[in-house]
Design a protein that fits this description.
Layout: H1 3-14, E1 17-23, E2 26-32, E3 36-38, E4 41-47, H2 51-58, E5 61-68, E6 71-82, H3 85-94, E7 109-123, E8 129-132
Antiparallel strand pairs: 1-2, 1-5, 3-4, 4-7, 5-6, 6-7, 7-8
The structure holds flavin mononucleotide.
C-alpha cells in the first residue's frame, strides 16, 4: 500500500473525520465522511452551497483529523477543486448514500483533492509516522 492508500484506508475505516478550514482569523471545524482514492489523489466531497466550500475557495489550506483503533491521523494541505464528471461518478459509486443528496450534474456537488499533503499517524504507544503525498 502506498502513502495515499494508507491514508485513504484509515479515513474510510474511521468513517468520520473532522475537517478544519479558516474563515478570516476564525478556525471552523465540522464532521466529514467522504474519502476517495482516485487517480493517485485523495478526494473529499462537499456541496458548493455550503459555507465550508466558500471558506476553501477563499483559503484552500485545511487540516483533517480522524481517530480509530487507538491511532489518530492528521492530514494538512491544500484542497483543489476538480469539476471532472468521472470523479463525481466514482464518489457516488463508492458511497451510494450520497445519491440522495448529490448528483454529478446538479451544479452543487464538489470534489476536492489534496495537494502538498502531509499526513501524520500518531498513537500513545508508537513514534509518529509522517507521510507525504
Ligand atoms: C458523520 C458525518 C459525516 C459528514 N460528511 C460530510 C461530507 O463528507 N461532506 C459534506 O459536505 N458534509 C458532510 N457532513 C455534513 C457537514 O458536517 C455539515 O453540512 C456542516 O455543517 C458543513 O460545514 P459548514 O456548516 O461550515 O458548511 C457530514 C456530517 C456528519 C454528521
Amino acid at each position: 500500500m502506498n502513502n495515499l492508500e494508507k491514508v485513504c484506508q484509515f479515513l474510510q475505516t474511521a468513517g468520520t473525520y473532522y475537517l478544519a478550514t479558516v474563515e478570516g482569523d476564525q478556525p471552523r471545524v465540522r464532521p466529514f465522511g467522504t474519502a476517495l482514492c482516485y487517480d493517485g489523489k485523495l478526494y473529499i466531497e462537499t456541496g458548493k452551497a455550503k459555507s465550508v466550500s466558500k471558506q476553501i475557495s477563499a483559503n484552500p489550506k485545511v487540516e483533517i483529523c480522524a481517530f480509530d483503533g487507538g491511532k489518530w491521523l492528521r492530514v494538512s494541505g491544500e484542497l483543489v477543486n476538480d469539476d471532472s464528471r468521472e470523479v463525481k461518478v466514482a464518489m457516488l459509486e463508492q458511497m451510494p448514500s450520497l445519491k440522495a443528496m448529490y448528483s454529478p450534474d446538479d451544479g452543487n456537488m464538489q470534489m476536492l483533492y489534496f495537494k502538498n499533503a502531509t499526513a501524520t499517524f500518531s498513537s500513545f504507544t508508537e513514534a509518529p509516522e509522517t507521510l507525504q503525498f
